[in-house]
Amino acid sequence: MRVSEFFDLGMTQPSLDFLDVDIENDIPIFIDPRAFLAIPSEWGHECVALIKSFFSEVLEAARSKDDRKGKYLLSNLSEPWETHLGLSYAGSRGRGVGNERAVDLWESLKQSQAIQTGLVQDLEETALMIYGIDKDIISDITTNIIREALIEYTQAVCQVYGIPLTKDIPSGNLWDPRSKTWRQNYVQLPTISGDKIVLIPKVIVRYKMTFEQGEYYRKYLLGELREEEFKRNSPLIELLVNGKKRITQKALMEKYGTGKPVLVKQTLKHPEALARYRTERAMPRPALSHHGIARDPERDWPDWDKLLEDVTKLEPGRRDADAYEKAIEALLYAIFYPALTDPRKQTPIHDGRKRVDIRFVNSSQSGFFHWLATNYRAPYIFVECKNYGNDPGNPEIDQLSGRFSPHRGQCGILMCRSFDDKDLFLKRCHDTASDDRGFIIALDDSDLEVLIQEKKKANPSNDLDFPLLRRKFEMLTT
After folding, report:
1. Same domain, 220 and 184
2. At how many degrees (to 10) do helices 135-145 and 147-161 cross?
């Protein structure tokens, strides 16, 4: 049974921002600390700061061989069973950092030449060169460091999806970046059979980390070693029948060996390999798509017809306004994920004097919304939902444009059921853009059908371009 089923949310994974985990067992998926670099929200920035703060303390302790400080920092990293992520298949008890493993990990860090020489700079790089650290350990360490931010996220999405919270739940260890210490608190969290649950945003999980030992060795470090062998006119060189020369990976690996000690030794000799790897891995791997996350096609692939019907079956008017907003949020999230994430409904701004129907975080790494964020201010995308029986007018446009700001962004979507005079409304949106009051894309029920058809026809590797949105945006700027 999954979280959505236990709490009877009436929604499936494609419309949920959190990973809909099994409530009894772990699933083999991991938090990539690099993923937060693609999240432009305050929450994303907070997670980056927490990770950097903690790992800087670990590096300082390891380089100064401060046993007391190092063991204190690492011994407070517990197994985060409350997330249900990891490699344990029979119940949520993975191989995270317990007290015994913390001592072993501390010794590995303290004695590592990669640490002492400054080769390793970030948490995710430990997977390349530190014995005993792989993606599951990095995921568990990250979970511990950002536990307080994950609790805040859990509380927020529980409000969005109507999941009840239980008071006075022990938080577990929380990293305090100001005091550089661990602390604990009592918090509100969802519980299942007395066990707490911490929900994880889909956008931060991966099957493969951005930094991987095997990839770095084969594609980067061996490349440097191959060039060195060619310069030496090495006996490893093979002459092919076409006259070309080659050195195989197998030959290089037989000569130099494998494993993390080899990576440390050779990287110290060839630091340019790591520099190039860092440059090319500056941003995380793309977020997993719906199909990438899917464990059960019947539950995890979007049911586009039902999502659209949930919108179109509603009668225009005030009575179904709340249901319309909920249906729009579920449909737009499924269409736009992973470009848009973390939907928040009735988001207050201006100290609560104004509210936004739906606010998305623009987490895009490609496609239309990435282009939008690159060329305009669009860290957030605002959506206003108007379940009207007639055309919205200037007041509705002014309402949405009033939510824009240089900090929050200047792009939004106005949803309505239909237009009697669509051209007139589009001209009003164009006027708003021309007056430098922001960019509003107007969508109605018929446009939703087009977006879904685009999604169905698109190549899964290129389904974030949204040609309809691009055409509508171009109309605002020409």
Report:
1. no
2. 80
